[in-house]
C-alpha cells in the first residue's frame, strides 16, 4: 500500500477492532481443556474418514472424545467427512457436529497440518481442491511420507467402485481397461448426479449382496493395492468401505482407517513410523471398566494393534 496522500479527501479507514489479544481469531480457539483431562497422546499422523457429519448415524461425541485425546503433526481427513447428500435432503446439525469442526480448526490453528481429502458424499468440495480454508488444505488425494521413509498414497477410494463392480471382467481385459474404468466411474456418477440419481454406492451395493460382501471387500482392497503399485507407492491409505484394516497385498501395504458411523476407528502413525488402528469404542469401554475397578487392578489392554 502506498502511504496516504495528505491532500486526499478520502477519510481514513478505521483500524479493525481486535477481538482477541492473539489477533483476528475467535476466542474459543484458546479455550483450555477441562481440568484433570487425561494427558494427550502424541502421534506423528492420524487418519480418519467417513465421519458423515450431518447424518444421525455420525458418532460425533465419540469422535470429539478421540480428537481431544491426542496431538499430531499431521491430521488427514480421508473423505466423507461432511455428508452433503444427506444435508441436501434435510438439515441435521447438532452441537456435537459443530464441536468436531471446532476441534479440527483448533488443531490446525495450533500447528497440526490438516489435509481434507474429498470423498463421494462431500464431492461438492472437489472444486476447491488445492485451496486452503482456516488452515485446512483441500485435496483429491495426498502423498504421505512415513517416519521410516515409506511413500503412501492417501485417497478416499470411491474412484475404484467401478473397478470393483467389474473386477471379474478386468482379469481378462487388463490394465488399459482398468484405467478406462477409473475414468468411466467418474463420468457415470457425474451423469447420475445430473439426472438427480444418487451416487452409485459401493457400501449400499455390498449390503444388498451380503453373501458376496467378503469377496467385494477383497476386490476393493486389491484394486487400491494395484493402483498404489502402478504408481510406485509403498502403500495406500483409504476409507470409503467402513472397514478398518492393515493388510499386506503383494509388495503394497493396504491401510483403511475405518469410519465414525459404525466402528469408530482411526489409523495412527507413531514417531518411528509404526502404523496402528485405534478402536475408540473399545478404548472407551476399557476406560470405563478401569474406572469401576479398584486402583490396583491391571490396566486395560491397549486398543492399538502395533504392526
Ligand atoms: Mn465414501
From TrEMBL:
UniProt-listed Gene3D superfamilies: 3.60.21.10
Statement: the UniProt record of this protein carries the keyword DNA-binding: no
Domain Calcineurin-like phosphoesterase, first and last residues per copy: 46-243
UniProt keyword list: Cell inner membrane, Cell membrane, Hydrolase, Manganese, Membrane, Metal-binding
A single GO molecular function term of this UniProt record: hydrolase activity
Composition bias type Polar residues, residue spans: 1-10
Comp. bias intervals (Low complexity): 294-307
The organism of origin for this protein: Novosphingobium bradum
Pfam families on file: Metallophos
EC number from the UniProt entry: 3.6.1.54
InterPro entries in the record: Calcineurin-like_PHP, LpxH-like, Metallo-depent_PP-like
Region Disordered, residue ranges: 1-25, 286-307
Name of the featured protein: UDP-2,3-diacylglucosamine diphosphatase
Amino acid at each position: 500500500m502506498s502511504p496516504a496522500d495528505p491532500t486526499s479527501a478520502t477519510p481514513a479507514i478505521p483500524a479493525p477492532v481486535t477481538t482477541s489479544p492473539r489477533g483476528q481469531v475467535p476466542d474459543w480457539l484458546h479455550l483450555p481443556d477441562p481440568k484433570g483431562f487425561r494427558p494427550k497422546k502424541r502421534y506423528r499422523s492420524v487418519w480418519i474418514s467417513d465421519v458423515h457429519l450431518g447424518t444421525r448415524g455420525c458418532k460425533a461425541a465419540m469422535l470429539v472424545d478421540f480428537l481431544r485425546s491426542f496431538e499430531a503433526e499431521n491430521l488427514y481427513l480421508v473423505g466423507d467427512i461432511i455428508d452433503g447428500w444427506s444435508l441436501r435432503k434435510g438439515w441435521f446439525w447438532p452441537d456435537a457436529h459443530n464441536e468436531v469442526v471446532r476441534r479440527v480448526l483448533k488443531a490446525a490453528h495450533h500447528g497440526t497440518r490438516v489435509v481434507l481429502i474429498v470423498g463421494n458424499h462431500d464431492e461438492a468440495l472437489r472444486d476447491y481442491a488445492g485451496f486452503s480454508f482456516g488452515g485446512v488444505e483441500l485435496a483429491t488425494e495426498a502423498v504421505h511420507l512415513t517416519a521410516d521413509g515409506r511413500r503412501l498414497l492417501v485417497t478416499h477410494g470411491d474412484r475404484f467402485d467401478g473397478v470393483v463392480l467389474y473386477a471379474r471382467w478386468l482379469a481378462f481385459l487388463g490394465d488399459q481397461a482398468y484405467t478406462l474404468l477409473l475414468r468411466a466411474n467418474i463420468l457415470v456418477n457425474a451423469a447420475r448426479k445430473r439426472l438427480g440419481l444418487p451416487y452409485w454406492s459401493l457400501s449400499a451395493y455390498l449390503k444388498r449382496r451380503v453373501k458376496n460382501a467378503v469377496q467385494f471387500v477383497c476386490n476393493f482392497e486389491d484394486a487400491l493395492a494395484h493402483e498404489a503399485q502402478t504408481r510406485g507407492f509403498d502403500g495406500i491409505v483409504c476409507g470409503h468401505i467402513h472397514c478398518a484394516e492393515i493388510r499386506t497385498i503383494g509388495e503394497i501395504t493396504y491401510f483403511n482407517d475405518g469410519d465414525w458411523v459404525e466402528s469408530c476407528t482411526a489409523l495412527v502413525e507413531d514417531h518411528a513410523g509404526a502404523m496402528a488402528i485405534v478402536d475408540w469404542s473399545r478404548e472407551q469401554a476399557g476406560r470405563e471398566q478401569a474406572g469401576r475397578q479398584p486402583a490396583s487392578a491391571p490396566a486395560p489392554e491397549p486398543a492399538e494393534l502395533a504392526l
